[in-house]
Amino acid sequence: MSKVIQHIGIIGSGNVAWHLAHHLKTVGISIDWIYSRNQETGIALATSIHSTFEKEIPSKEVDLVLICVTDDAIQLVLNQLNDSFQAAYTSGTKPLNELEFNGELGVFYPLQTFSREREIELKEVPFFIESTTSTFAQALFDLAWKISSNVQFASSEDRKKLHLAAVMVNNFSNHLVFLAKTYLDEKGLNWEHLKPLIVETAAKLANISPFEAQTGPARRGDEVTIEKQEAMLEGTTKIIYELITKSIQSTYPKK
Amino acid sequence: MSKVIQHIGIIGSGNVAWHLAHHLKTVGISIDWIYSRNQETGIALATSIHSTFEKEIPSKEVDLVLICVTDDAIQLVLNQLNDSFQAAYTSGTKPLNELEFNGELGVFYPLQTFSREREIELKEVPFFIESTTSTFAQALFDLAWKISSNVQFASSEDRKKLHLAAVMVNNFSNHLVFLAKTYLDEKGLNWEHLKPLIVETAAKLANISPFEAQTGPARRGDEVTIEKQEAMLEGTTKIIYELITKSIQSTYPKK
């Protein structure tokens, strides 16, 4: 029954729903409706793309119901969906075989961090596709291909691993910036001075491996600086400093 | 005795020496000589900017000797320098009052990560200046101003704190990418898929605070995903995962 996906309904109105809705609309996909438990953000999203906010999941046919909700809500949504629907969800971690649905079900996972406040380019963002049937997988692939030039099929297992790596490079790095900013705030120093460094830290990895790109006291084995810096910190930040420093040192053992 | 700095000698031939030499030359500063314990990289640097490599520190006068060496080597270099020289060093951590030198001494610290393989824009890079005299501080400020539009005076104390924050956002984030890449390599997955995410992680911080920018299972309080991800990891990476996850959770306590 899979065919080219033209008309979709979106369930959810968080960051992922927001960005996918806007990008899909831009490439000519019709977003027939938005449904969301959160009426306020749901209406805001529907309004922003000139779509309709629905108070209940409609039974009217669309080519795809795109489920952009938290992992623990996916099954609850599927329970309310008519079996005649084709549905896909955007989670990085939820395995396909843990979900029960009699209609066709697939995965449409963009490996990226989304914030409402920020417009984002999707062209290079990897999308990982999976489905119970190859025809539906292909339809989802083609849909992703309209907004990204980096679309892959991936098993639930591989997707889970990629998501874990994404947590480390995005969530954890962002938290390190939060801790550094908190430290500078406390000392009355301006964290904005870190911004060019933050951008360059990411940018240099475009053509240098993280092993080669590593710099700093731990890489140099500069024990004097390391000791002084540890003494400047306290609490969780100090423990994180010590742990990552040791991990860097063991990556570059002294000759 | 401070005057406009036109002629400089550079001691050191590492990443910082390399990039400062090239940028200073570009804005019309004459790099009269390069001295380095490492002859190979010293000659390579001198050749690349059409300067002279010296086998010993020359006694011929220059307006500034720029010392781009590791912290523990700065004093050793100063011991060999003629007191008639004005000297500045590029360290983020070495306090000015821990160094002994009878000539004028200052700090010329660029808060950035430098790798030989990568060209870098310095215009937005913050430079932190300090000196034993205000006239020399001003001369160093003016020199930095030729290559950057973000130049500040900063005490040794503040510079040390900024450097520590820089270690956290650069060195540590880069190591997280290394750990994520190592994990994906082991699983036969392509770490290149993380690159758009890495770039966006940094880019979104241009106009969103790290507190607002935080996403992911720890921020959402998604215990199921956190437990599964911990079970997928081992060794140091697992410990780092647990520690940073806890730190994020305590930053966004459940209501």
Entry summary:
Chain A is an alpha/beta fold and 255 residues long. Chain A has 10 helices and 8 strands. In chain A, helix 2 links the parallel strand 2 and strand 3.
What labels would you give this structure?
homodimer; 255 residues; alpha/beta; eight-stranded mixed β-sheet; 8 strands; elongated
Please provide a written account of the structure.
2 copies of one chain form a homodimer. Chain A has 255 residues and is of the alpha/beta class. The first copy, chain A, is 47% helix and 15% strand. Chain A has an 8-stranded mixed beta sheet, with helices on both faces. Chain A is elongated and about 70 Å long. At the A-B interface, helix 5, helix 6, helix 7, helix 8 and helix 9 of A face helix 5, helix 6, helix 7, helix 8 and helix 9 of B.
Q: Show the largest interface.
A: A-B, 92 and 92 residues
Please give the count of helices of chain A. Answer: 10
In what order do the strands lie side by side in the largest sheet of chain A?
3-2-1-4-5-6-7-8
Distance between the termini of chain A: 63 Å
H and E string of chain A: EHEHEEHEEEHEHHHHHH
Oligomer classification: homodimer
Radius of gyration of chain A: 22 Å
Report mean pLDDT of chain A, rounded to a whole number: 95
Q: What's the total number of strands of chain A?
A: 8
Main beta sheet of chain A: 8 strands, mixed
Low-confidence stretches of chain A: none
Shape field of chain A: elongated
Helix content range of the residues of chain A, please? 40-55%
Structural class of chain A: alpha/beta
* Proportion of residues in extended strands of chain A: 5-15%
